[in-house]
Amino acid sequence: MKKVKFGLIGCGSIGKVHSRIIKNLSNAEIVAISGRDNKHEDYAKEIGCSYYTDYKQMLENPEINAVTICLPSGAHSQVAIEAARAGKHVMCEKPIATTIELGQAMVDACKENDVNLGVIFQHRFDQPILLLNKAIEEGKLGKLLWGSAETIWYRDEEYFSNPWRGTWEHDGGGALINQSIHYIDLLVHLFGDPKSVSGKCRTLLHKGIEAEDLGVANIEFANETIGTIEGTTVAYPGLYAELSVFGEKGSVIIRNDHLLFYHFEDGKWSEFESILNPIKATALNTSVQVDESSHVRQFEDFVQAILDNREPLVTGEEALKSLKLIKAIYQASDEKREVTI
Which of 11, 96, 204, 239 is the most exposed place for a label (fewest CB within 10 A)? Predict the structure, then answer.
């Protein structure tokens, strides 16, 4: 196989991001899309690929090696399982699913059918995160002690006018599982498996939605480090997403995907100095537009994993970790107690 040939399932704004990225990769291409609207057929003509109104028919196309799923979260599991059974590799938008059981079913189906399952957590491929991983591995922070993930955003009523947003069935939750999950994933990625969590979730502003627009939590990780989470869509006009990592020999703060601050006991680090950007990091986060550069790096890894017959860097099992943590926060809030994970 010289090129991985993709089918796109779901042609909304994020689906078009996926299609642009795949179209520009040298070792991949979009050969078909599926959607239920005439505008999706027009989009297929625009990018020069086949169009299906029924994704199940698209899965029968032997030319397709992989699919990328850009549907509401509640539809991820069924489509991914059917794609796996059709022998297609699966890339899926976050969260992996709306429940742990559905997410595990996706993982199991892909393993049983010997296809890869990747889930979009593109911020693992941000340059500051890649360098932070390196700094931790080289011992520049010493023993990690505490990490914090904050997503202090705002979403207006127009955003929630889409009837599936903020629902348990289609979204799986609210601000934590949809907006905050990226930085929650980074926290788990850096600190390891959570052991227990306590938290509170509330719907304070967007009264028309079922799920939370504010959630806070305290985590104890298996290695006895501590984590804190704050996630909201009520912070007008939308401020920042921030990951803070504190160790015995150093501290790092990444805000709005840019390196805001670092300090190491052994002095300046040239690789961090080259990307230190407090101006961009402190800019207000008022846009829902996606920076595609880290998506590109994740897709490059996923495609190369297929060609190399290996797992991608972000697997379904990895994606389940943040989902399990968020569901435990919901449980802790509902039951007013600390929950063991």
Answer: 204
